[in-house]
Amino acid sequence: MQYSDKVMDHFANPRNVGEIEDAQGVGVVGNAKCGDIMKMYLEIDENDVITDCKFKTFGCGAAIATSSMATELIKGRTVKEALALTNSAVVEALDGLPPVKIHCSVLAEEAVKAAIADYYKKIGREVDFSLESADERYEH
Amino acid sequence: MGRFVYADNAATTPVSQSVIDAMAPCFASAWGNPSSLHSKGREAKALLDGARERIARVFACEASEIYFTSCGSESDNWAIKGAALRGKKKGRTHIVTTVIEHPAVLNTCRALEKEGFTVTYVGVDGDGVVDMQALEAAITENTAVVAVMYANNEIGTLQPIERICALAHAKGALMFTDAVQAVGNVKIDLSALPVDMLAMSGHKIHAPKGVGMLFIRKGVVIGNLIDGGGQERRHRAGTENLPYIVGLAKAIEDADEQLADMPRVAAMRDRLIEALTAIPYSRLNGHRTERLPGNVNVGFECIEGESMLLLLDMKGICASTGSACSSASLEPSHVLLAIGVPHEKAHGSIRLSISHETTEEDIDYIIESLVPIVARLREMSPLWEEIVKNGK
């Protein structure tokens, strides 16, 4: 099992680590039993644009790298654009992941969705998307 | 070039120069087949016999009780399957082992279950010591073999092998111990330790990978695993791997001499354990004193083992993890779960296995590298955030 240089870069120098106090959207996915938990914080302005994004992750190198990459991919995007983020896009942006680590990218996608769902609930908007990834390879 | 510290000796060890030197003539000149009757064969046969005798001297057994194999896993397979085959003829179709054995033993037992044998997997206590009451209760007149590892590969806990031998023998069962991790770390005297079979592997003690050994006590009869030519007194076919066998003999002799250095290694181990368990929310996995002199296995809450491993690797430190995050199963170590470490905590364990080659400076470097790595990973862990918010 070998990580790409991109994965190692995002693992060793993760972008956007931390918390956002009073964030508009907070999502937590995964569980400690399986060995990874991702917590995603979103700062969203009145135009539905994600102006800031932070994460905290308990997990392996791939879990940290996928969280980091996901925040990069959605920062500055609209909520609608962020909802279109797939785990495959995260994998691609990281120049690939070992097969046993694909579930980490699924978790990253789901963390973003969970945070947006939290935002929707807070502003009274209907959650009109699935919180789960469509990826069938995910067998957690 | 930064500092390099190898702390994964339980995985494998570098081949020592003395072993390389001992093997060299077997490649350059003594390349004969020990079974050949001509001079080239006799030259090889003399080296083979010499290696066996030197090993027997170290373990205080007879040369005829030593059988060379390709690795520890082969020795484990042979001992258990061979004893099961033999036992079946006498109506003994039961095997007793423990839940913390190496996969080479566990999966051998599982394979035998599919062939109609029944297996009892005895549990261990929180330190990883086998539950002696349960073990005693498990062994019956129907038990063919009791297989208990001498020392655990992950947490280093040593088992009371002598007492287990007595329990096995009281019911007429054979006693086998996988001593792959123990040889070279603790003195093994087969004139005093009444095991019927003992397995070891070369690459854990500075011999190359691809050579191992099974001790089978005189009078103990087990079935063969590899049939073929008449090598190893017709019990293990295949032309002998003479260079590696000669290397194994040298490595065993060297390891025996290095046993004198083990108190120093154990003192370094203790210093490392103390420094790492001084970190809040950490725990030592395995027995505090009844453990291999070079084994340190510590779990840190709220972080994951692979992340620690990768960051240590960037610092030039080679370690390993009990976390199975790198395998397809995502299941944490069966050993850590068996000693009662909950799933979520089992993920954050790391094994550092040091040797006589480790220095005090290496220990300092591991401590000064690992302490901030734990802090850094906790800083980005949502689980740690909860602990901090709930006010420790």
Give an account of the 3D structure.
The complex is a heterodimer of chains A (140) and B (392). In chain A, 40% of the residues lie in helices and 18% in strands. By secondary structure, chain A is an alpha+beta fold. Chain A has one domain: Sufe protein. Chain: A, CATH 3.90.1010.10. In chain A, strands 1-2-3 form a three-stranded antiparallel sheet. In chain A, helix 1 (5-12) packs across helix 2, helix 2 crosses helix 5 and helix 4 crosses helix 5. The longest helix of chain A is centred in the C-terminal third of the chain and has 22 residues, at 102-123. Chain A starts with a helix and ends in a 17-residue tail after the last helix. In chain A, 49% of the residues are buried. The model of chain A has no long low-confidence stretch (mean pLDDT 93). Chain B is of the alpha/beta class and 392 residues long. Chain B folds into two domains: 5-12 and 261-389, Alpha-Beta Complex (Aspartate Aminotransferase, domain 1), CATH 3.90.1150.10; 17-258, 3-Layer(aba) Sandwich (Aspartate Aminotransferase, domain 2), CATH 3.40.640. Chain B has helices spanning 17-28, 39-59, 72-89, 103-114, 132-138, 161-170, 231-234, 242-258, 262-277, 305-314, 334-338, 343-346, 360-379, 382-389; strands at 5-6, 66-69, 94-98, 118-122, 143-147, 174-178, 197-201, 212-216, 282-284, 295-300, 317-318, 320-321, 349-353. In chain B, the strands form three sheets. Chain B has a seven-stranded mixed sheet, with helices on both faces. In chain B, strands 9-10-13-12 form a four-stranded antiparallel sheet, with helices on one face. In chain B, helix 1 (17-28) runs antiparallel to helix 8 and helix 10 packs across helix 13 (360-379). The relative contact order of chain B is 0.15. Classes of the chains: A alpha+beta (140), B alpha/beta (392). The interface between A and B is medium-sized, with 31 and 26 residues.
